[in-house]
Amino acid sequence: MDFSYPAEVEQFRADLRAWLSANLTEELIDARRPSGRDDAVFDKLRAWNATMADAGWAAVSWPVEYGGRGATVLEQLVYTEETTRARAPLPLNVIGMNNIAPAIMQYGTESQKTTLLRRMMRADDIWCQGMSEPDAGSDLAALRTRAVRDGDDFVVTGQKIWTSLGHKAKWCQLYVRTDPEAPKHKGISCLIVDMTLPGIEARPLVTLNGDTDFAEVFLHDVRVPADALLGPLNGGWQVATTTLSHERAGAARLYAELELRLDELVADLAEAGDALTDPVVLRRLGEIAVRIKYLEVLCQRSISASLHGGSEKTAFGSASLAKTVWGEIGQQLAALAFDVLGTRGVHGRWSDYRLTSRSLTIAGGTTQITKNITAQRVLGLPRR
């Protein structure tokens, strides 16, 4: 791995640090993990997204013509590390900006690009992604939601679940089956759907910690204009693959976020009595610190592969392995925090994290799926 930073990248870092120092307030830092229950916090973060977008810091990897900076891989790496360590809130449209926007840039019409992208960046419109279904979680090819062409429309019927911000979204990148006779992964199309269309019902889902950040979405004979198709008919698998492999340095957020959480935990333990003199606690902290360092190396190997022209297949496989490790470390850290601090005083946030950490090995690709990707693409094992 070679991450020597040329002068222009260091200037990029300095400019970003200066802007964050001048604009990122403690109030925004405290609000960086929004709950679906608090509309005031949601609106505050929405305004922050607009501030970042207007200053050109919301989506640095995007091309300049869409409001980004056309950042290089190294600049993306610096951006991810600096914003994470500064504890800047993630975009409300984080799935949209990292996953959906690249597909619109590649497959969308000019009208879709000019109408949708900048509003997504500013969080003027909230986006969701309709992939998971009750019987098709991480297995996109198993989806059953149907779209049948009828004149100038597709008529869509089906159900999606675990749709992030689905009940707040204006737009949805929806994956539907348009050819039931084709092999499972070849009969899927992608639609950009206005969530205000008649026949769409979004019901918030309450998670273990009481948040409502997800929704169950029902589609009852929804008429979606045919020009809402993103990419070729029955080419949704290709769109999804493009979507999920766009960010070149986003993996850096995995280890940077865990480093930050570990620092916060050590600080809280130091305030909570003699926890840091307990050899069992120290051993568990040391194990987590070592695993985070290993995760950093793994993520940087994936980034380095992209930087130096390595195989896209290998880079994607390494990123899948990193996601698996990240989820396991997050759960390990949450368990330690709760075991020692429980729900005491201001440290009650660790009990919340203990509950939410159960999703880390599910959201964004279950551990079972990501291990299969690692086995096939990294280890070269046969598909079973």
List key phrases describing it.
Butyryl-Coa Dehydrogenase, subunit A, domain 1; Butyryl-CoA Dehydrogenase, subunit A, domain 3; 12 helices; 384 residues; alpha+beta; 4-stranded mixed sheet; 14% strand; Butyryl-CoA Dehydrogenase, subunit A, domain 2; 4-stranded antiparallel sheet
Structure in words:
With 384 residues, the protein is an alpha+beta fold. The protein folds into 3 domains: 85 residues, Acyl-CoA dehydrogenase/oxidase, N-terminal domain (Butyryl-Coa Dehydrogenase, subunit A, domain 1, Orthogonal Bundle), CATH 1.10.540.10; 109 residues, Beta Barrel (Butyryl-CoA Dehydrogenase, subunit A, domain 2); 130 residues, Butyryl-CoA Dehydrogenase, subunit A, domain 3 (Up-down Bundle), CATH 1.20.140. Helix content is 48%, strand content 14%. Strands 1-4-5-8 form a 4-stranded mixed sheet. Strands 2-3-7-6 form a 4-stranded antiparallel sheet, with no helix packed on it. The radius of gyration is 21 Å and the shape is globular. The model has no long low-confidence stretch (mean pLDDT 88).
Strand and helix order? HHHHHHEEEEEEEEHHHHHH
Q: State the CATH class of the largest domain.
A: Mainly Alpha
Number of strands: 8
Q: In percent, how helical is the residue content?
A: 40-55%
Structural class based on helices, strands and sheet pairing: alpha+beta
DSSP helical segment count: 12
Distance between the termini: 33 Å
Tell me the count of domains. 3
Which fold name corresponds to the CATH topology of the largest domain?
A: Butyryl-CoA Dehydrogenase, subunit A, domain 3
How much of the sequence lies in strands comes to 5-15%
Low-confidence stretches: none
Major sheet: arrangement of strands: 1-4-5-8
Per CATH, the superfamily of the largest domain is: Butyryl-CoA Dehydrogenase, subunit A, domain 3
Could you tell me the radius of gyration in angstroms?
A: 21 Å
The main pleated sheet reads as: 4 strands, mixed
Organism: Mycobacterium gordonae
GO molecular function, one term: flavin adenine dinucleotide binding
Family: Belongs to the acyl-CoA dehydrogenase family.
Protein name: Acyl-CoA dehydrogenase
